[in-house]
Amino acid sequence: MTQASLISGSLFALAAGLMWGLVFVGPLLLPEYPAAVQSFGRYLAFGLIALPLAWLDRHALRQLTRADWIEALKLALVGNIVYYLFLASSIQRAGGPLPTMIIGTLPVVIAITSNLRDAQRDGRLPWGRLAPSLLLIAAGIACVNHSEIAALRADPQADLARYVLGALLAVGAVACWTWYPIRNADWLRAHGDRNPRSWATAQGVATLPLALIGYALWWGLTAWRGDAFDMPLGPRPWFFVGLMLAIGLFASWLGTLCWNEASQRLPTTLAGQLIVFETLSALAYAFMLRGHAPAALSLLGIVLLVAGVAWALRAKPEPLAAEGHAA
């Protein structure tokens, strides 16, 4: 891993985080829309956006095998639709900050998982060097989380069971997005000659039929149950469609493209920690919507998160043989 790869990969990860942070805004702006409608709507928009891009990339997409398309479908289902279904449901039940901070554990979870799983390929970051950055990130998450929990306890109208369910759904989202970047990186590192843009487009194309089927099934379910929600576009159709298209373009396609570029340049262990940029972006957007700056403890947490990322970038993976020789 060269210094140029480290810098460019980190910048691509930052860009992905800034755009992925937008997905936390949608459920807050559309509280009356079911999470399933938002998840299927977002990825229906993503799939439609991917179609003209697929035409431009048709020569590269023809090179994908049947196994590649099956992998794209798996990534689209778990990392896109199921992940956002869990996340949107969590935000609608627990508000923005709590799910954001639970999702913020992803850098720690992915780094530990990858360091255990991918050492043979990427080299291993010795735990002694990795621990300080993980501790800083965890401390930052704890600070922001403590501030939000204190506000929750001070609210007499708070529904604790609803918040607990929101937290559990966020844990489900963490599981999905622990699996996704590691599995996605496996494919990208195994196909270093392929264009990350084409792979992002392939995932968009694979998402389209899944989103169409899911949207149709949900529409049928609401009709069967006699729900009052006005399918297919709800009470604010133009706002809903515009927001889904914006999130589909920036968060789904362009964000995935930037993340693919980062994944080809960085070891999975370091790339996993840079998902912290998504957490920071989502927190910034949430506080902007609230119309006030974060509390001092939250600001301290943000500083600790950034410090943890900076520390992580100083550590370089070592080949297993070299590590064993050093031991």
Walk me through what this model shows:
It is a single chain. By secondary structure, this protein is mainly α. It has one domain (3-326). The protein is 81% helix and 0% strand. The chain is built from 16 helices and no strands. α1 runs parallel beside α14 and α11 (196-225) packs antiparallel against α12. The longest helix has 31 residues, at 160-190. The radius of gyration is 20 Å and the shape is globular. The two termini are 23 Å apart.
Q: Which percent band covers the strand fraction?
A: under 5%
Count of the domains: 1
Count of helical stretches: 16
Uncertain runs are 322-327
Approximately how much helix is present in the residues?
over 70%
Jot down its keywords.
disordered C terminus; mainly alpha; globular; 81% helix; 327 residues; single chain
What order do the helices and strands come in, and which of them pair?
Blueprint: H1 3-20, H2 26-29, H3 35-56, H4 58-62, H5 66-94, H6 97-103, H7 106-117, H8 119-122, H9 127-153, H10 160-190, H11 196-225, H12 237-265, H13 268-273, H14 276-290, H15 296-314, H16 320-326
